[in-house]
Specification:
Shape: elongated
Largest sheet: 5 strands, mixed
Number of helices: 14
Order of helices and strands: HEHEEHHEHEHHHHHHHHH
Distance between the termini: 43 Å
Mean pLDDT: 85
Low-confidence stretches: 143-153, 159-165
C-alpha cells in the first residue's frame, strides 16, 4: 500500500474517531472508501453506529473474517431496506433518529488482542444503551440476554436466531448463477417461456366454450383437462411466435439485431428476495449478480453502439458511393446532351445543303434518350442522397 493511501486511511480514521452522522457518511462514503471498499479499516479496529435517540447501538468490524465492513453494513441495513434482517435499523434511519458513526482504533499496547478490545467496547456501550440484537429481542417479547452477543456474526441483522431455515429460492438462484451462468440463462429463458404466456393462457381459457362439454363426468373431465392444456400450449406457441416476429422485425428494421429479453423471471425473484439476504455469502453473491446484470446491460449497450456505428458507417459509405454515382451520371448527361444537340444541328446543316440528315437525326434521338435516362437517374440519386443525409443527420 502506497503512502498516499496510508495517509488517506489515517485521515479518515481521525475523522471517524470524532464521530459523524450517518447522513454525513452517506455524503462522504466514496471519499472514505479505499479502492471502492472499506475492508481495510477492519484491520485498524471497530466501528459503532449509535442511535442516540433510542440508546441503541451496533458494533462491527475488526480483523475477524466474520466482521462486516462499513460499506456493507451501513448501505445494506441502514441507508436502504435491501436485505434487512433487523427491521429497526433502516426504520430508525428513515425516521430521522440521531445516529452517529464512530470508529474505535485498536491499540495493541492497551489490549492484548482485538477480541479483548471488542469486549471492552461492548462493556462501555452497554452502560449507555443496548445492542440492536437486544432491542429486537425486547420488542419480540423475548428475554434480553446480553451473553448471547458475539455468538453470531449476524446477531444484529437477523436477531441472533439460529437460522436453520432452508435457503430461499432467491438465494438458490444466486448460487446457481454463481456456479453456472450458462444454465442460469438457459433455465431463466425456459421459465420465462413457461410463465410469461400465463396472462394470454387465462384469456384463452376464459373464452373457451368447450371446457365442460360432454355427456358425463368423465367426458367433461377429459375435455376440461384437454382444454386447459391446449390453451396453455397455445399461449406458449403464441409467445414463441411473438419472439420470432420481434426477431425478424429486428433483423430487417433495427440496427441492433440480437433479441433482448427484458423481463427476466429469475432476476425479478432475486430482486424481491434481496430483502431476506442477511449473510455475508448471500450479500456477496447478490453483489456478483448485480455486477452480472450491469455487465449484461453494458454488453447489450456496447453491442447497440457497435451496431449503430456499423449502420452509420455503411450509410456514409453508401452516401459516398451515391455521390460518385451522381457525378458519373451528371457527366454522362452532359456528354449525351451535347452529342444530341450536335447531331440535331448536323442534320439541319445536311438538309440545308440537300443532303439527307436522317442518320444524324436518328443518332441525335438516341443521345437525347440517353440524356433523358441520365436525368431520371440524377433525380433518383439526389433523392437517395437526401434520404441518406437525413438519416445521418440523426446520428448523435
Amino acid at each position: 500500500m502506497n503512502n498516499d493511501k496510508i495517509a488517506l486511511i489515517e485521515s479518515n480514521i481521525r475523522l471517524l474517531e470524532n464521530g459523524i452522522s450517518l447522513q454525513e457518511y452517506a455524503e462522504k462514503a466514496e471519499m472514505i472508501k479505499i479502492d471502492g471498499k472499506t475492508d481495510v479499516y477492519n484491520e485498524y479496529g471497530f466501528f459503532v453506529i449509535y442511535n442516540r435517540t433510542k440508546n441503541v447501538y451496533l458494533l462491527d468490524g475488526g480483523n475477524s473474517p466474520a466482521g462486516f465492513t462499513m460499506s456493507v453494513t451501513i448501505p445494506q441495513f441502514f441507508l436502504t431496506d435491501a436485505g434487512r434482517g433487523n427491521p429497526y435499523m433502516h426504520q430508525h434511519y428513515k425516521d430521522g433518529d440521531d445516529m452517529i458513526l464512530k470508529f474505535h482504533c485498536y491499540n495493541p499496547e492497551e489490549y492484548s488482542s482485538m477480541d479483548e478490545f471488542r469486549e471492552a467496547l461492548v462493556t462501555e456501550y452497554n452502560k449507555i444503551g443496548i445492542t440492536y440484537f437486544d432491542y429486537l429481542m425486547k420488542n419480540k417479547g423475548q428475554v434480553n440476554n446480553v451473553n448471547q452477543q458475539g455468538q453470531s456474526r449476524n446477531q444484529y441483522y437477523n436477531g441472533g436466531s439460529n437460522n436453520t431455515e432452508k435457503k430461499t429460492l432467491a438465494a438458490k438462484l444466486l448460487r446457481l448463477e454463481h456456479k453456472s451462468k450458462f444454465w442460469y440463462e438457459v433455465l431463466n429463458f425456459i421459465v420465462g417461456v413457461l410463465v410469461k404466456p400465463i396472462p394470454l393462457f387465462v384469456i384463452l381459457l376464459l373464452n373457451s366454450r368447450d371446457l365442460f362439454w360432454g355427456e358425463n363426468l368423465i367426458q367433461k373431465g377429459m375435455m376440461f383437462i384437454g382444454g386447459v392444456l391446449g390453451s396453455y400450449f397455445a399461449a406458449i406457441m403464441f409467445y414463441l411466435m411473438f419472439l420470432a416476429a420481434v426477431q425478424i422485425f429486428k433483423l430487417f428494421f433495427c440496427k441492433y439485431k440480437k433479441l433482448t429479453i427484458r423481463i427476466r423471471i429469475f432476476d425479478i425473484i432475486i430482486k424481491h428476495g434481496a430483502k431476506k439476504f442477511y449473510s455475508n455469502e448471500d450479500i456477496e453473491l447478490y453483489r456478483e449478480h448485480e455486477n452480472n446484470t450491469i455487465g449484461r446491460k453494458n454488453k447489450i449497450s456496447s453491442g447497440k453502439e457497435r451496431a449503430t456505428e456499423h449502420y452509420y458507417q455503411k450509410k456514409e459509405e453508401e452516401l459516398k458511393y451515391r455521390q460518385q454515382e451522381l457525378e458519373r451520371e451528371e457527366r454522362d448527361y452532359e456528354y449525351n446532351s451535347y452529342n444530341a444537340e450536335r447531331k440535331f444541328k448536323k442534320a439541319k446543316e445536311n438538309e440545308k445543303y440537300g443532303i439527307s440528315g436522317e442518320k444524324a437525326r436518328k443518332e441525335g434521338r438516341e443521345y437525347a434518350d440517353k440524356a433523358a435516362w441520365d436525368a431520371q437517374n440524377i433525380e433518383r440519386i439526389k433523392r437517395e442522397k437526401e434520404e441518406l443525409e437525413r438519416k445521418l443527420s440523426k446520428r448523435k
